[in-house]
Recover the amino acids of this structure.
């Protein structure tokens, strides 16, 4: 039960006088946590009070021992200090009065491990029984996919899945309306994305780029066999087994050219603001293709961003997003695509004034229909097909193709959204905008800076929380950088100014 969520003003009235007293007594300890202190000072959670209040009952139940705003602030500071273990963080809060005060707790009265996990579970909208059943479910032993070339993406396990997904979305069928992470995503959008917008770090019309980042799971890729094959002397069986990380499977990291057992984190980042910042995160299995994650992200993220008063003007993506269905989906949401083509033409195609392709002997090729699925016209060798009188006119002693079917080429119609984009493909503007796609790699690197690659968690709930806590810290870094730029102070001077302490007090 919870009656009231502490506002940011109430938190500052609690934290500042106590931190000032600690600073005057032992300034070295306070300055040791300088970055964490500045983040706690600028972290305003007032926009998320309604969400945090809704996680608790107002009428019945035992009163909550700790305010949810303080619990969230404490977890943000935990990841800010590159700690991903709740047990280690609880021990630090016990013996550090500075950290306890920064989080909003009374020294000596800090949350337990169970209290933090209870708070995480309150923000996770998944039925506990279904969650337990999913952990007990058996599945076949995962196998590594076939080897692919370095630098190439792992192909989708189900060809055509993006096209089927987009068709379902356009018919009004959404498979993720009851996703358990939606409360966490809404909290991140209200507090941090809107907070960056209010500080004019993120523009109202955003240019987004998307990219996936692999994360290895600490679970065993072989699973836990529950059969009696070992008793029978069979040590390599394919019997169903239990996995501690039920969402992990084999994926391929194209950058490092290695297979990994884990999951794929897809991030939408704003690249036309003052800083490059994440605005939406979504996890998928390690084998999940970026195009599939992007299709889900569009229908989930766009309404969230619109509720925050933001719009998406352009999406910038690599060749993994090059699918006709995704161009159609972006067109529905009124976003201009700047996407690299997956395959480039092998040779230049000669055409006449009417746009009809010419064979190497400069004869007009024969039209052979339109492929609606790939949006292209098909043309065949004029010597192999077409009316007999036309074939006789073609003087070709040496065929340009060894196939009995004859030379075949394809052309695109002028209404093709993939080739003829709103921003002309290959233009100077298109090339300048596509260069921004590399900025998404900077955002992916920030997750590792906050220790997400070293996290020892298995449950989907905890993966989402740690990833969003790292994204929250990325926004806080931008807020602090803007404060330093506006005030002209360094970090130490900004902290002393917030505490109302002169520089001479440090040496007293």
């Amino acid at each position: 039960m919870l009656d009231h969520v502490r506002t940011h003003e109430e938190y500052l009235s609690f934290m500042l006088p106590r931190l000032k007293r600690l600073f005057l007594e032992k300034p070295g300890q306070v300055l040791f946590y300088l970055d964490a202190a500045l983040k706690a000072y600028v972290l305003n959670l007032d926009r998320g009070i309604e969400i945090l209040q809704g996680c608790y009952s107002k009428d019945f139940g035992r009163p909550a021992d700790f305010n949810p705003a303080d619990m969230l602030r404490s977890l943000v500071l935990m990841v800010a200090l590159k700690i991903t273990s709740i047990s280690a963080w609880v021990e630090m809060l016990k013996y550090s009065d500075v950290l306890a005060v920064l989080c909003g707790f009374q020294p000596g009265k800090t949350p337990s491990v169970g209290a933090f996990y209870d708070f995480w579970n309150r923000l996770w909208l998944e039925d506990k029984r279904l969650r337990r059943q999913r952990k007990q479910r058996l599945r076949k032993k995962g196998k590594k996919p076939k080897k692919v070339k370095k630098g190439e993406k792992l192909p989708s396990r189900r060809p055509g899945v993006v096209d089927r997904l987009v068709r379902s979305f356009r018919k009004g069928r959404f498979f993720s309306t009851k996703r358990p992470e939606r409360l966490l995503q809404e909290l991140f959008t209200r507090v941090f994305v809107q907070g960056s917008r209010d500080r004019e770090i993120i523009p109202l019309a955003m240019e987004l780029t998307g990219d996936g980042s692999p994360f290895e799971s600490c679970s065993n890729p072989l699973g836990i066999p529950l059969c009696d094959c070992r008793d029978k002397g069979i040590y390599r069986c394919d019997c169903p087994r239990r996995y501690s990380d039920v969402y992990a499977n084999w994926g391929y990291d194209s950058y490092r050219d290695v297979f990994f057992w884990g999951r794929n984190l897809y991030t939408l980042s704003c690249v036309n603001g003052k800083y490059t910042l994440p605005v939406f995160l979504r996890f998928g299995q390690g084998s999940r293709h970026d195009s599939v994650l992007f299709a889900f992200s569009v229908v989930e993220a766009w309404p969230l961003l619109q509720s925050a008063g933001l719009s998406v003007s352009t999406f910038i993506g690599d060749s993994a997003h090059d699918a006709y269905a995704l161009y159609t989906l972006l067109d529905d949401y009124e976003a201009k695509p700047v996407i690299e083509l997956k395959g480039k033409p092998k040779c230049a195609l000669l055409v006449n004034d009417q746009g009809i392709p010419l064979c190497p002997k400069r004869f007009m090729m024969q039209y052979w229909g339109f492929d609606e699925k790939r949006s292209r016209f098909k043309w065949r060798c004029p010597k192999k097909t077409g009316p007999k009188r036309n074939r006789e006119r073609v003087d070709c002693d040496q065929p340009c193709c060894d196939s009995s079917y004859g030379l075949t080429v394809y052309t695109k119609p002028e209404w093709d959204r993939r080739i003829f984009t709103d921003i002309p493909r290959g233009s100077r503007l298109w090339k300048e905008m596509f260069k921004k796609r590399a900025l998404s790699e900077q955002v992916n690197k920030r997750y590792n800076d906050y220790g997400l690659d070293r996290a020892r968690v298995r449950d989907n709930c905890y993966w989402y929380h740690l990833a969003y806590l790292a994204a929250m810290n990325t926004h806080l870094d931008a807020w602090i950088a803007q404060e330093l730029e506006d005030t002209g102070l360094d970090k130490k001077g900004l902290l002393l100014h917030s505490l109302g302490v002169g520089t001479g007090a440090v040496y007293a």
